[in-house]
Amino acid sequence: MANKIxxxxxxxxxxLKKLMRNPKIWVMIFLLGxxxxxxxxxxxxxxxxxxxxxxxxxxxxxxNTDLTLAMLLMMVVVWFCDAPFMDEHQPYTIARSGRTVWFxxxxxxxxxxxxxxxxxxxxxxxxxxxxRFALSDQWGRVYTELASQNxxxxxxxxxxxxVSPEIIGRYSPVIATLLSTSLxxxxxxxxxxxxxxxxxxxxxxxxxxxxLFVAFLGxxxxxxxxxxxxxxxxxxxxxxCWCKIDNISNNxxxxxxxxxxxxxxxFIAIIALIIIAKFFMxxxxxxxxxxx
Length: 292
Prior knowledge:
Keywords: Membrane, Transmembrane, Transmembrane helix. The chain crosses the membrane at residues 25-45, 57-80, 101-130, 174-198, 205-224, 260-281. The protein has 14 helices and no strands. The protein has helices at residues 2-20, 23-39, 41-50, 59-62, 66-79, 90-97, 99-126, 141-147, 149-155, 165-170, 173-201, 204-219, 229-237, 259-282.
């Protein structure tokens, strides 16, 4: 058993190294950095206007913005769109390790790879404000001012990320950040496993297309907000919507899903997708691909 675990971890590390050698990853990292720099222009302007430093707690607001959330989730999907990660070397790796060990190695790779994506997002949420950065356990006046309706009305601007007064009022910065990052990570794992399972059985474009669609729905709530009661139904059944913690509440009066529901749903969905993908993997025809 211990040897199988070591082999699975080794396979996951090999897949991670292959990912980091892929040019598309570095292009997407550059685009991520560019988008985040642009998103923080308003924060930098407000910080300079007030003459105050900025606290590091921007992640809940980044994930609370439709366009940015959709982009980040779809970025994760594109990173792992080559699922089930077959290349000219994998058939030989499967022959030596066995299908089950290889499969769990790829699951670990997805977990590790999506966590690296999350770390990159956190890094690029700090980089644009590094010259104005100050550690604090409070939201700080900059974000409090940006959350006020008066600021939005006076400036006439639409913020590049949504500084929600509800988040500031309901949560401490640490709790909000932990909730946002954990839900984003679990959703990233969910989307990648969805692709992995479907691409083992169906053409790749089907699994990738469905994952992109679910990712888009998570950040596209502003598009279907006018659908009445159907909007509430979508926000209860589409897990990517829960990266926006504004869509979750433990108060049953609000009609939103609870955090217990969100985490339970995601954990069950992830386990179910692993079981389904393993079933498909046992029947997957491994083809020997030609070397370049």
